[in-house]
Amino acid sequence: MAEQSDNPSAGLEDRPGAAPANGLIMDTFSYDDDIVRKFALATLVWGFVATLVGVIVALLLVMPEAAFGIEYLSFARLRPLHTNAAIFAFAGNAIFAAIYYSTQRLCKARMWSDTLSNIHFWGWQAIIVSAAVTLPLGITQSKEYAELEWPIDIAIAVIWLFVFGGNFLMTLVNRRERHMYVALWFYIATIITVAILHVFNNLVVPVGLFKSYPIYAGVQDAFMQWWYGHNAVAFFLTTPFLGLMYYFLPKAAERPVFSYKLSIIHFWSLVFIYIWAGPHHLHYTSIATWASSLGMVFSLMLWMPSWGGMINGLLTLRGAWHRVAVDPVLKFFVVGITFYGMSTFEGPMLSIKSVNALSHYTDWTIAHVHAGALGWNGFMTFGMLYWLLPRIFQTKLWSVQMATWHFWLGTIAILLYIVPIYIAGLTQGLMWRAFDDAGNLMYSDFMESVKVSIPMWWARLFAGVLYVGGIVLMGINYYMTWTTRPKTYVVPVYQAPRLSRYYDDGPAPQPKLQQGVLDIAKKMDVWGQAHWHRRWERLPIRFTVWVTVAVVAASLFEMIPVFLIRSNVPTIASVRPYTPLELFGRDIYVAEGCYNCHSQMIRSLYAETERYGEYSEPGEFIYDHPFQWGSRRIGPDLARQGGRNSHLWHLRHFQNPRQYSESSVMPIYAHLLERPINYNTVQPRVNAAYYLGAPYERELTEAAQMAKEQAAKIMDELVAQGDPQEEAALRKFSDSHVIALIAYLQRLGTDKNKVWEDEAATDAPTDAPTDAPPAAETPAAEEPATETPAAEEPATTPPGDAAPTTTDAAAANRTIHATAMEATS
Amino acid sequence: MSDASNTNLNPNEPPLTDHSYDGIQEYDNPMPGWWVWLFVGTVIFSGVYWLYFETGVEGRSIFDEYGRYQANIMTVKFGEIGELSADSATIAKYMRDPKWLAVGKATYNANCVSCHGIDGGGGIGPNLTDDNWKGVRHLDDIAKIIKNGAANGAMPAWGSRFNHPNVVVLTSAYVASLRGTKPANPKAPEGAVAEPWPAAEAGSQPDNSESTEPAPSATSDKVIAP
């Protein structure tokens, strides 16, 4: 490894003209590397934990029995632990190590407050530990990468924005380097944007210390979640790592950065464009199409801004490629940046609606994010750590060779991971949409796509073990390097002049174009020389304000219409709020993390409606706090699950999913059958839902009683579906969690075409005669057999009654249907 | 602070800026041309895309596309047979036609296997391969059960879930065709022995007239018509 090549005193001579001795005050200072050592160790430890939990969930997916039926170990409870640990614990600690090391040196200033640095460190570790405890317990908001409940969210906001952000910003203010380097721009964007995303996606109404409902419902909640979710990738896993790259890569390569101008343009375009792209996670769903289109085009426009970072990284290595061959640090960086380039090409591609129609809900997404997480985030972190170890421990790296092994093991592991999972994803997508010549789904049994995926999932498990093995090698190297550290660390003392109040930016540049061009061209030329930006770089507060403006403006452009235009969420008259028992059951669904494997969103694609039923409409989700659309279908969609299976089937299925479907990979949920419903907790849930807009009446005072009544009714129905001899055995499960969950599942997707008994009873005598003639004029009446399901369903209701509740879309379906029949007969 | 203070001694090196941060320098290279033009290209494409799809011109939305696709596939699927009625004769006819059994099989695999097994051998629901049938005496009883459900909801009602009434008839035909096949793990017989399915169309006629009640679909049709 390279010896300590960065001579700190060199900084003083960098700008001979800028430091005349005329009255400038020289400051003496040192850097706080202790905090860097802490975060570096935390990165190693949590990197091991996050990837190990990844291996565990990969195992649980192919061998659900490996959880031994223990609820805390089920796939759906541990999968969020894996994602949160990878993002916030592993990547989080890595970027903190990077920021604390590089910011001090780029600012020629110690962190503003060592106390805040340490509160940040211990506070962040406490947050991670609380996540690791609460997630397996089923305490979750169920919004991906924002699962942690509200008390932890508050802690995150305080630690991130006030402790970390405040300390960082004050360090910038007290810097001794006039201009801020591009790495610092990316850190600023990270701190500001993550704080905004985190706060606004986590606005909730608490129901207790460990339970809350988001203030947004359905479509709007989905929009907010993916505004957050996508930009968590952007501003937690991309911008800070670009900052890391901009510092550690030129340091390790000892080469100048390829292009300052490219840094400026790709930084600002990245910050502004990223924010819009979130809705590409929601193509063909119930979100308004304009939002989905915006998400797509802004994702396409992100391609080059992202590649700007890749180019600046790879081209910085020009003249240093011979060193890549021998230096594992550069090897990690080269492959990391290459994976960044690959992922940021793939991302825009996946955002194209027609590609997304194939890829969404499949393992393709999983492969995509792992190329990014293992390749980009993982390898950039490893490269940084191997570069840091000899510096923070003031010794030599114990084994360069072992670091090289880690590199090769990790590279092979990533390839062995992503290739099978890409194959699995593509296979799933193609199987779900395959039709034979006669227009039938070729693989209509969902389990067929699971069966073919299982070998790929085993391969992934093997690859995961290799990747963890690489981290173990790094752990050994880390420990052995640490053991050779000096007894006491040398703390070098540096000197630099304090920044004077006044600074001359120099004369404004002249246009290089002189003759035969328009004035505007000259102005563009001057603008293109980026003198204005150079000025911003010495004004950290203004810079921060402009970043905030870019991010907030881009967010508001999308949010205001989503929240204010009513036509984005047309209401459906027959959609009513959940009953108290269903609400309780829904909270079980959320706590168990069912969304990790089951979507509740039938997209407007024919292969989906053929398989799952009518596509989902925005108005169906207005009481869904939080939304449960999901992002992956390891199991089938549940949007129209209501009425698909009997109560009894559900009960047996939770008891042992493999009883009726051998290759099912669903965990056993036997604990739901044992645990009694705590009826005392029903009323607060109902009250919170009412506060959020559910029009409850009797429920406001008698929620518990109503829940008990419904539970008894479901139990009676369930018993009636079974063998009479089984009755006593089934009654044992009265008032257990599974009854509430069944109540919820049987409600899913049924409201849209429902004719409620109370409405039918009151309306029938008066309205039926007047409604009948118009009903007879509908196309359905001309083609009697094509009558919609809505009118057929309630045998006791006069058909005329169905007309008022039939939505436009249903009518449109019917018309299309009738046209098709005419065309063919 | 002149911008082009080239401190490089090597003329082959690109110009450096005068920036230096903790020893890190920056070249004053221009942005690569292909990068700039691809960026501009994506911006132009985005504008064109937006104007094409999001300015309210009819026929371009994803829902229009969905409607066209559905109409087309319905034509492919049911164009040649039109509307089927759920009587025994019709079911008997289609249970012997492999082309149309495929429709029923696809529906069965999507919706029925979790209770009746992939090969009809039964699970929580009854075995569909033996001669004993719960609530089924005649062929058209299968269609009634699929449509309206049975056994207090143990068998859900499917009538309102399919996108075409033919699906119930053709699924009934597929289910009927399972009788006499050999599943891997047959469940014990439940219910009474059903009459043999009518052998041919001619034989099915009396069978149909035997059942005095018209099929439920016929009932609702009659209610709607006046």
Brief account:
Chain A is mainly alpha-helical.
Q: What count of helical segments of chain A does DSSP give? A: 32
CATH top level class name of the largest domain in chain A: Mainly Alpha
Instruction: Evaluate the radius of gyration of chain A.
Output: 30 Å
| Quaternary organisation of the protein chains | heterodimer
Number of DSSP helices of chain B?
9
List low-pLDDT spans of chain A: 1-20, 764-825
Provide the β-strand percentage band of chain A.
under 5%
Give the overall average pLDDT of chain B: 83
Unreliable stretches of chain B? 1-7, 202-226
> How does CATH name the architecture of the domain at 83-224 in chain B?
Orthogonal Bundle
- Would you identify the CATH H-level superfamily of the domain at 83-224 in chain B? Cytochrome c-like domain
Query: How are the strands of the biggest sheet of chain B laid out side by side?
Result: 1-2
Q: Strands across the major sheet of chain A, in which order?
A: 1-4
Task: Look at the helices and sheets of chain B and give the structural class.
Answer: mainly alpha
- CATH topology call of the domain at 83-224 in chain B: Cytochrome Bc1 Complex, Chain D, domain 2
Let me know the largest β-sheet of chain B: 2 strands, antiparallel
